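The data are passed on as follows:
___
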Amino acid sequence: MAQQLELFDRWEEAGTYHTQKYGFFSLLVGSARKHQSSHPLVDMPRVLSLIDTSRDTWLSQAEFIKPNRRVVNLARLCLLFVDMDTYRQPWAQGRSPEQLADAVLFFCHEEGIPPPSLIVFSGRGVQAKWLLEGTLPRRALPRWNACQCFLVDRLATLGADPAAKDASRVLRLVDTVNSKSGEICRVIHVESGPDGHPVRYSFEYLAEILLPLSRQEIEEQRQRRIERRQLKLLDGGRSSNLRGFSGRQLAWDRLEDLRYLVELRGGVVEGERMLHLFWRLNFLLLSGATNSTLMYHEAAALARELDAAWNYRCQELMTLYAKARANESGETVEFQGRKYPPLYTPRNDTLINLFQITDDEQRKLRTLVSRGIAKERDRERHTARRRAAGAMDRKTYESRSLSRQKPWEALGMSRASWYRAGKPMPAVETSPSVLLMAEPGRV
């Protein structure tokens, strides 16, 4: 096993979960004063080979569309991870890194959690990493966050760091020193798959095991709720698991819609920049993709996206910051007998009026649509399902109808007589050429 683990240098370990596609990764270097830099993914092998391994170095676990590791610039995700501060736990005192890995594997087995693909000794604690088959797009971030939260909560006994679960997180780079202990960060366990490489998991498989509801169950619940509403048996109460997850996904999709709206309009006018920044940041916080600690960093990235030369005033976001802190502490706001998070949860109509979104723009957005556009989309989906099931369109149906073909006229009968006669059909005419070919003796 030791010989196998020696093969995992800093590039080979990073290469198990980083692609060489378009986008960027980030490095954080230093101890007292840290320096951050971002580099194209295609340059990762060269950049990592130039790292000074005697310095504390951290590597971003996700990939980004811009040269910074803000979650609003997320490109893709390739793994789930948990950073465990085992050195703080009494049970871990005096244990070797390999014994810590055995403890993590045993605990995962007891809890029904698939074993991590890699376990890395960070110099004092351990990092558990579950590699994914392929990559996750940014739209899957809410489900990814839900899986991260589950893993951190379940592994809290082992010292899982609750602050180290976001997509913008950096973890110590293999082969580099941890200056606090003098130890070298290294791979201490590899869970091999059938091909001899670190095992990779389907994200859907992990989500089904980790989340309270699988995607199929969520869809089934949604369909049942629709049917119950149609039968007027539902009073509008909320289903905690489904609504909680759907709320985070809805907030993320609204953020994406507001960003795409600016693309459709070719930019944002000066007087509307703070309006866009405020609501984008609100939905980012509501999605659970960031928190109050990182809020202003994400705000800076969003502001640069709106206008690279814009120096916005942080004071205008203080109310949002206070609401984010209240949300993180578990506070709720009650309205008409229902509880809501302290952050803003406006209706679609409110946002459509606020941003003056036209019908043509709504048709290109995912969630910011009026009821009329939503019904239009529903009709289109219903039509598509009927076509897929073999139903013909109305024009074809009508062209084949008896009222259009009028077979009684070809028989010289009235319609009533034709029906009384048992609806006989006129004989099919055969072309002369076919009759000639059918005659005996014809070649």
Summary: Residues 347 and 368 are 9 Å apart (CA to CA). Confidence is low (pLDDT under 50) at residues 228-245, 430-443. The chain is about 45% helix and 15% strand.
